[in-house]
Amino acid sequence: MFRRDHQKKADYKEIIKRNMSVADSSWKQLFADSKTPDQWATEKPKKGAAQADWDKMWDDWSEDIKSLEDTPGKPKATEKHYSQLSPAQLQLAKAELALISDTAVELATLAQAQAQEPSSRLIKSTDIATEMKKLFLGNAEATLTTVANDQIFGASSSIINSGDTACTAEPANGKIKTLLAAMSCIYQGEQSCQAEDICFKGQTAANVWANGGAPNVTAAKEIAGKCTTDEHKQKTTYHTIRQALNTIARLVTTKSGST
């Protein structure tokens, strides 16, 4: 309902106005000047709502009450949204409109907060493909054929002597630096005691991460190959995505508070 370029347009304003139209007269009087009751107030009241709410909503509420009344306490003849409702129906309408209005305000607030795209070299790049390659492989010049452990895991990757060392600690010059390194930590099969083929069936049995060894670069390349467009054979559809999510959900387990 609230696109980034449409945070507070007609739909939002109509909701807030409808909510204002069923408000009690005591609430509407807060928008009248305390010294000149037939004139609109020019400053926020100090009662009736929290100061934070007045700061957030003053402009919107002021606009709405003025669209409903010619002057304080004198409704416009053209604004009779719920005049045909019985008292009981009006009370129900008030509750519903209050909920809808609160939701609209929160959505508009979120939309405004997200209006600015985060500053990012990737977003601003004129060559996203190169930036993505650097993110994935660590080097824009690397390929799946030529990429080495040092490019994936950082210089001196040979000091990494186990999956725990690489993935849960940050040894000097050996911490996770690339997307492929992170994927290797999750998906590379281990020699023993860990789940095999957690990501996909068909990893070469010999391409495992030895319990006391460095990452297996061949296994990393194999995982990368499954994630690149040129080796992706299956057509992605809504059905295949849902099927994958359902499969993942069935595989998730929880033990002792850990998932």
The rough form would be described as elongated
Helix content: 40-55%
Class from helix and strand fractions: mainly alpha
* Spatial ordering of strands, largest sheet: 1-2
Q: Mind summarizing the main beta sheet? A: 2 strands, antiparallel
Task: Say how many strands there are.
Answer: 2
Total of helices: 11
Low-confidence stretches: 1-7
Counted up, domains total 2
Rg, rounded, reads 30 Å
Q: Could you state the order of secondary-structure elements as H and E?
A: HHHEEHHHHHHHH
Instruction: Return the average pLDDT rounded to an integer.
Output: 74
Describe the structure.
This protein has 259 residues and is an all-alpha fold. It has 2 domains: 104 residues, no CATH class; 113 residues, no CATH class. The protein is 46% helix and 2% strand. It contains 11 helices and 2 strands; from the N terminus they run H-H-H-E-E-H-H-H-H-H-H-H-H. A two-stranded antiparallel sheet has the order 1-2. A hairpin with a 2-residue loop joins strand 1 and strand 2. Helix 1 packs across helix 3 and helix 9 crosses helix 10. The longest helix has 27 residues. It comes from Trypanosoma brucei. It is a lipid-anchor; GPI-anchor. InterPro entries: Trypano_VSG_B_N_dom. Keywords: Cell membrane, Glycoprotein, GPI-anchor, Lipoprotein, Membrane, Signal. VSG forms a coat on the surface of the parasite. The trypanosome evades the immune response of the host by expressing a series of antigenically distinct VSGs from an estimated 1000 VSG genes.
